[in-house]
Amino acid sequence: MKKLLIVESPAKIKTIKKFLDDDFKIMSTMGHIKDLPSKKMGVTRDPIAIEYVTLENKDKTIADLCKAAHGIDTVYLAPDPDREGEIIAWHVAEELKKVLNKKAVIHRIAFNEITKTAVLDAINNPHSIDMEKVAAQQARRVLDRWVGYEVSPILWKKVTKGLSAGRVQSVALKLICERETEIRAFKAEEYWSIHGTFTNTAGSVVAALTHIGKKKAELGTQEATDTIVTDLKKQDFTIDSIKDKKRSKNPLPPFMTSTLQQAAYNALGFAVEKTMRVAQNLYEGVSLGGDTPTALITYMRTDSLRLSETALTETRQYIGGNFGKEYLPGSVQVYASKSKANTQDAHEAIRPIDTAITPESVKMHLSSDQAKLYELIWKRFVACQMTPALYAQRQVTIEGGKYTFSVTGSTLIFDGFLKVYMIQEDEDSSEEGEKKVILPGGLKEKDTTTLKKIDPKQHFTQPPPRYNEGSLVKELEKEGIGRPSTYATILNTIRARSYTTLEKKRFIPTELGMTVTKILSEGLPHIIDKKFTASMEEDLDKIAAGELDRDTLLNGFYEKFEKDLNELRGDLGKSAQTTEIVCPECGKNKLLIRFGKAGEFLGCSGFPECPFTSNFIRNQESGVIELAEREQPQELATVCPQCKQKNLREMVGKFGKFIACSGYPACKYIHQDKAGFKCPNDGGDVVKRKWRGGTFWGCGNYPKCKFALFGEIEETPCPKCNLPALIKKIDPKTEKVTLMCSDKKCDYKK
Known about the structure:
Layout: E1 3-7, H1 11-17, E2 24-28, E3 34-35, E4 43-44, E5 49-50, E6 53-54, H2 59-69, E7 74-78, H3 83-96, E8 105-108, H4 116-124, H5 131-158, H6 169-185, E9 190-200, E10 203-212, E11 215-216, H7 222-232, E12 237-249, H8 257-268, H9 272-284, E13 286-287, E14 293-294, H10 309-323, H11 359-362, H12 368-383, E15 389-400, E16 403-414, H13 432-435, E17 448-460, H14 469-479, H15 487-496, E18 500-503, E19 506-509, H16 511-523, H17 530-544, H18 550-570, E20 577-582, E21 590-596, E22 599-604, E23 613-614, E24 616-618, E25 625-627, E26 634-639, E27 647-653, E28 656-661, E29 674-678, E30 685-691, E31 694-699, E32 708-710, E33 712-714, E34 726-730, E35 737-741
Parallel strand pairs: 1-2, 1-7, 7-8
Antiparallel strand pairs: 3-6, 4-5, 9-10, 9-17, 10-11, 10-16, 12-15, 12-17, 13-14, 15-16, 18-19, 20-21, 21-22, 22-23, 24-25, 26-27, 27-28, 29-30, 30-31, 31-32, 33-34, 34-35
Helix pairs in contact: 3-5, 5-17, 5-18, 6-15, 6-16, 8-12, 8-14, 9-12
């Protein structure tokens, strides 16, 4: 009896194939096969109806799946075990029902790890497609479509064309902009610290001044500090107290998606997108020397900390056998997510499939990135089931007159889980400073000690740090914004839309990002409110759990959304931010930050009476805006080929640099790159032109002839239809070059 098993990613096929007999044919959807239409809303209300269309290039995929389903008795749908996977399974099922015989059965199966046990267990315990999960995915997709399609056109009219708004990424952008506003408003305040070096027969101690009398020592100026330093020199000091205690440090829980992304960023320098891509490889399977791949980790999109009994038993055996009983707790360590209400507990935490497959044993078979990430996941998981580390902590207090100095030293006396996992994951927190303090062992309470050295230091308060990828994911998780599968997309979107730039790996909002956030915050305060967005995520979880109706949520959202939209549409004047700079041309109007085809610029608020414009620079620390020096035209040594009198010069226009005759306006020659072939329509020159979307090659006889090739070209005739050039496309990730015919009727591609 032939069976068809359909997975989401083709990379899984080889891994799964080795577990099943020849009765199974395994195929892949290669991701989604259907979605909402790209050129229209695709969602109607009263009642809510969703239109799905086949995605580009997926007609063949669907046809192949349907062809394979002919004569099949049993179909197993095994896309990824999450909401996106559920909607893929549903879409595939809807297509297969058209061709399957009436007695054929469609099952939904899911596995958290690609092992023989997990795959066979899933096949032996199939279930139906979870329509509540499907409804939750549909609700998310519709919400995102409404916000994107309804708000984006308003931004085009109020700011500039090509902008987009997103239900979740707009909230993430708001976090970045709010942090930038804090930084710009921040005023550094001076403060001082005093450390004293004390000695007696037992040794030397460096301690910090903590109290003056009963009040905490707060020193704001050098004058106040100098006065205290002078007074300290007059005091006699004794060791007031020595307090010894033991402190334990517990291991961190196993990884879920957000914590893996944060740790990989801070410990390995991996971008969030890279972390998920490498983790996907480890989950789907990699070759460990043989022909068939081996899966190394469990599913990497999860916000659960649950661990299977089998995994815990195997790991405890590994710890006891390799490190000793003192490293093995008396019972299993159980971890719970901080917010159970927000946790999708369908999966386990991210862990190695087999603890016995150590990082060292597979390192030679993995890429450098795969090896690093697998080691991080393996060590974190093993460490989470080990005993705590134990420190001996000593606090020494020294007093003299009204002054109290204090120092704490910490010594590691049992490494526990640190034997495996000593990775610092958070750049803003470390105990290294405490560990480096070593106190003499012979100190005794009430012993006198001499103040040998006083070290006053000036400090200034620091503004809050800008977000990097790791800290932004941490904040999104803390606020309940987004889900494991969406963090990478959120970060990519806010960068791709020119709403932020990265400087020293930290997000800085552009003027465009700040302006869009201001418009949305004022016009749609509910949509980009952190609490509202987090509560919406909880409601989506309720739909998936069958506790809330999909259309009830969508209708409730749209009623409020529609009111805010109407108010926002009420004022469609161009939005501009007023600066404090007076126009240097007219001398009376303030300059405004405006947005054009080539980006942001300063323009006089007296336009059109005063046409002054200028580029500008904003100081990233103070937020102060300054006019940028205008780039002067550079004269070239080449004589203009048209007038043959004046030299050419390099100019800067709204689409960037270009070369033109310096005799303008008497000579209007503009240099253009010419292709080595003539226009196939009228024989005219084919020249390179610029537009707001980039560059294209077009007939020089435009507008009479509208022949155009968009993007880069290779001057090689199409072998199929003989057009004189091919379009060249380069994949930014793989750098793979694809050549294709520019004629849509010709399907040549190489």
